[in-house]
Every structure is written in structure tokens, then in C-alpha cells.
## 1
Amino acid sequence: MQISKGVEWAVHCCTVIALVGEGRGLNAEALSEFFEVPGPYLAKQLQALSRAGLLESMRGKHGGYRLARSVDAISLLDIVLAVEGPGPAFRCTEIRQNGPCGVPRKECRRPCEVAAAFADAEAAWRDALRRRSLASIMQEASAGSTPGHLLEIVEWVRQKTDPVA
């Protein structure tokens, strides 16, 4: 399974947006600058997060995006589903029914064993992502960073969202 870079970008953006003060937003252009990623593609990910109710969009001079829920209430699965959609990662096409030794459709009473194995694995994967909150990712990132770097990030966000700027 391969997760799109849009999911990676969305998770990282949410961690930065989480630092935005009350009544303020961080725009897509600033986030694009912060991560040095293409703005139009990043904007699509942010719009997907907004449609899913994970981000709120604010209009106006100091508008942009802010979290619609607390960091404890946003799971990694929420972000994956917002960006990738709810469909299964594995889609069985029933090729066991093809070819010279294919199993006749009427004899396929049970789910394909291959599909069942992938469904079990995906259920475990989704459950693991459901248990990981944005807060836990931010805590781990903070623990792995220096205080100076964390202050640099907070100051950058403050400058980009300060009403006086």
C-alpha cells in the first residue's frame, strides 16, 4: 500500500495549524512556503481537510485555516480518509474466476481468501491510525526537537498570523 504525499503534507500542515492562535488562520500560501511544497497541490489537501470537517476556513485579511477540532479529537485515520477517501486500499477483482481453471461464479460463496487477508490487514492498519491522534504526533515531534527549533516554529506561525503584520 502506498499513501499519497498529500496525506503526509496534510498531517504536517495540521501540526503547524494547531499552533495558530484563537480567531486567526494560517493561509495555504504560508503553509506552502513553510514546507516548500507546491501551493496548488497543497491547497487541494487543505480543501479536502476542510470538507471533512477537520479544518475551518476563515475569510478576511487574517484568514486562512485553523483546526475545527482539538488535536486530541483528530486521528491520523481522519486525515487519511479526508485526503484519500473512504474506499478500501485493496479491491478484489475476483480473478480466481478467470482462466482455464477459474472457479465458477456460483461456487464463489465465500469471500476470496486473498481479499479477506487484505481486508484483515487493512482493518488493523486503520485501527492503528484511529488510535493515533494529532496530539500524539505533535508530542513525539516536540520530544525529538530542540527547544530553539520549537520556538522558531512558534515565532514563524505568530508572524504569519499576527493581525499587526
## 2
Amino acid sequence: MALGQNRKILQIVGYQNSGKTTLLERLIACATKQGVRVATIKHHGHGGVPQNDQTKDSTRHAEAGARITAVEGAGMLRLSIQQERWKLDDIVALYNIFPIDWLLIEGYKNEHYPKVVLLRTEADEILLQQLSNIVCVIYWHVQPTTDYPAFSIDETAQYLDFLMTEMRKD
């Protein structure tokens, strides 16, 4: 993909400990095995500037095969660029200079990009009414009542195949 061209973007969202990073690792590994150049952005949504020990998720993204990783929290983008506040669209724009095919985003629930929603508990289903651009749902225990494609967390091959197909669509 040429510099500055649009690339496929997908968000992975859910509450803390819902499996976002593990899902991203699996998707990154699957995509890179097929020659897809992947980059990631992680939202440190637990308050404050992400410390070096709090960048472990972006390190996991890199170990899975992501070419570029970043973590953002409280205005600190760990590519080590400091400004008052970072909007997701501004970070995405930075990535336009890199030759990547897919940009996978962990977090930023309320942004407008296509997203996978992880539901660990039945109470988490409220996200399905609050969020936009849902591509599919991955659930832990009880299958939600929804019109979106839904996969059990244990159906790894099925949801990875679905997501790879979705990301390859024009």
C-alpha cells in the first residue's frame, strides 16, 4: 500500500479483562502469516500516562508480528511524542506515513471505526446499545441476543476466519 493511502482499520473493544489483547495477538499472528503488514494502537484507558511497565500489551502486539505499535494515555503517545491531548484520528494520521495494510486499535470504544465487541459477562451487553459500527461480537459465557455475527471466545478459528474475510473486503 502506498504512503498516505487509506488502509483497513478495525477496533477491538470491551471492558477490562475481556480478552482484547489476546484477540489482537491472534489476529496479528494470523494476518502476518498471510503477508499482511499490521500496526496497532493501544488505548491506556485506566487513567494517567502509560509507564514503561504498562506498555506490555503493545509489546505483546509486537511479539505477535505488528510492525508498529503505540500506546496512548493522558496525552502521552508512547512513540514518545508529548502534547496536551491526543485524538485517535490524529494518531491514525501519523500512521499514514508507514507502509502498512491494516491498523488494529485496542480500545477507544466510542470512536467511529468498525469494531469487534468482546462481552465477558451478560452485563457487558449494554455495549451493544452504546457502540456504533459493530462488525461482530465475541462472547465468553452466554450468547447475546443480537443481529450481529456472534462467536464464542472458544471458536477461535471461526472468528479469525470471519475477521480475515471482513478485513479483506473492499
